[in-house]
Amino acid sequence: MLRGNWIPWVFGLALVTGCGGSSSGADPTEDGGGEVDGGTGADMAPAYPAWNASSPAICGQPAYAWQPAASVGSVLESSRNLLGVNTFVISTLQAVAFLGAQLNVQRSPTYSTHTASIRYQTQDRGKLVDATAMVTWPTGSTKKFPMLLFLHPTLGYTDECAPSRKKGDLTAPMTILSLLMASAGYVTVFPDYLNQRSLGAASTATTPYLLLEPTALVSLDAVRAAQNYLASRESVSFSNDMYVWGHSQGAQAVEYVTAMQPFYAPEFTLKAAAAVSPPSDLPASAKANFAGTAPTYNLGQAIAYTWSDYYDRAQIPLSLQSPWDTTALTQLKNYCNTSYSDPIKNVTDPLTVFTEPFLNSVTTGSKNNPWSCWLHYNNPATMSLPINKSVPLLYVTGDKDTTVIPYANDPVIATWCQQGAQIQYLQCAGADHVHTVTDSIDDVFNFFDARQAGMPLPASLCMPQPAKRCTSAR
What is the pLDDT of residues 254-272, one digit of tens each? Predict the structure, then answer.
């Protein structure tokens, strides 16, 4: 949910990022949604009906049902890079990135790669819609490669910020990551998320930022579409084994995808997941961040606007003070514009931006419907989806992270462990919000490698560990 800055990896490029994710913890057949205190106070969270995959509408939404799997995942349009990227170039990119900033990947690339962007069929609230994604795959091998779904941090909220727009830009961080992952032997899929389109007609709404169902469905359908594209147009072999990795906002999406996959895309076998700096309890994260040394009110503004845009636009002036309610869209559209000076960066008092009922609902859990209801179903700490106990999760934090602060989210992770989740803790010493992902790249690769090799999980599973220097740290 919360924002930091990627260190410029290549040629001085700076990228603004956001926050991450998690999953939930209770059986959805249990009344009350399996609520978890998570630091906001159990008496603050009202009891809402348990979420139901056969009737997924929440909080007074009109009823709808999901489209069948046969209706989604088809490729509507594609744009393929003319040239592939060989291992020498990838090694050079790693070296330049290391010299220019903080990326310090230890492993050498094994495979050359190729990249395309695709526009594909997915769904939103039971209606067919389209979305886009970047797909990068290993070349020159007959090996059957697993799928790797990477869920990006906060890069923006509109079409202009879609990562797949830069699929041919070897200085773009998401493109570099896709090359590294594919060169390590994965078919990598980078969804742009809903309403962040690089192909097709312009989106007419903002992306549903940090919302569970639209994020999970569009991400799983991106993997389906990637497989359909590759099977019909490229020479690469792949399996239904899938790994999921994300940072910040994308880490929250990792937990949502992991929880939603058994209901929505059971054809995949989730082998492992990595959630890097996830805000597992949204109100606790917001409260800790807003009271911290570098509060990110712009991300609170993004929640206020995009959730209202998705569920009920009448809530915009009830959540944002004037003039922020009318200027928010301009600020969200310019999020990925490095030359834009966002006026919210100068705010010191959140009540000059947010209405008091909204602010209290997202930081203290006080009742304020529909926000209390929306938060209940979209906050990993209280969403009533079951833990996918079969998926080992690497949970990465940084001891210097002041954006997604570990102490605000660790209680939820501990609760999931008590419920049977397989969670391996990793805290990177000296890592702020950005460096949690750059410092832990090799650790995630090693975690995934071990799962591919069938190695047992460590005996320290679900035991918090002291901070240590992570493998990719400089």
Answer: 999 999 999 999 999 999 9
